[in-house]
Write a structure and sequence with these properties.
Protein name: HD domain-containing protein
Structural class: alpha+beta
Keywords: Hydrolase
GO molecular function: hydrolase activity
Domain HD: 152-274
Radius of gyration: 21 Å
Strand order of the largest sheet: 1-2-3-5-4
Strand content: 15-25%
Helix content: 25-40%
Largest sheet: 5 strands, mixed, barrel
CATH class of the largest domain: Mainly Alpha
Organism: Blautia wexlerae
Amino acid sequence: MKFKEIEVGKSEQIRALLTGIEERGSKAGTRYLILNFTDGEQTVTANYWNCTREEFTAKEGQVLDLRVDAKLYKGSTSYTVQSYLLTDESPEAYVTSAPMDPVDMFNKIHSFATGLGVYGMLVCTLLEENREKLLTWAAGKSVHHNILGGLLYHMYTMLQSASQLYKVYKNILPLDRDLLFAGVILHDIGKVRELSCSSIMSIDYTPDGNLLGHLFIGAEMVGECAKKLGLPEEKTLLLQHMLLSHHGKREMGAVTLPAIPEASILHHVDCMDAEMYMFRSAREETKPGEMSDKIFALDCRVYNPKN
């Protein structure tokens, strides 16, 4: 039994990995827990009412047998845990990973970076310094690529998309190839400090992540590395601009707006890659011929065609 197989209005038995625990208070003054689970295919959040963290006997990283209710709430499926039992099963089978080998992705990205001219040494240095984290890190807590190796996978697929777009638009206006691809590879490098990721993909924001965010952290990492390597000032400035503007709009977290075409391409490739991941995930969690729950980052429900 998987979470996607639980019909709304029914209660089912399911086995899942516990990846997160958060205690909250209700308006009535009672305490309850927000629990994060993964069944190996899908990550969900469930409520466990009238319980404190101290009273809850399970720990993150344990596989539990659950009795779960599914209800419809504001257009999405909401889960409530009615009871749970501890098991001794290993969590490995429940951790969702990127569909490609992380070492292979890292090596291909690193090899590509060696050909980025004046930016090559800087990109390779930051990749090498953060290799251990990059091999496992997620690209986000919940919205997209929140899987083992998700950050590398996001970089890798974006690099493929940007390579195709570069071939089209280099014939329309002058583009700095090396700057574009350096920005693609490093645009989310700040997430290795913004997020904490455990081996079971328990993901949370660090103090730096909450206070600064990955755009600023990444630009700072680039600045520090560029200074050590003696990168020309304007080259450093342009690459930092790529990172600081890649969210595209200030209301989406951008520090500044894309002021060069390379930054605009990066922004759109980033959005497209994140959205395609969300569409794919929604379809995998939805039966053919049906609509998914509302995907808030897409602001819509996703249809999974019958054929």
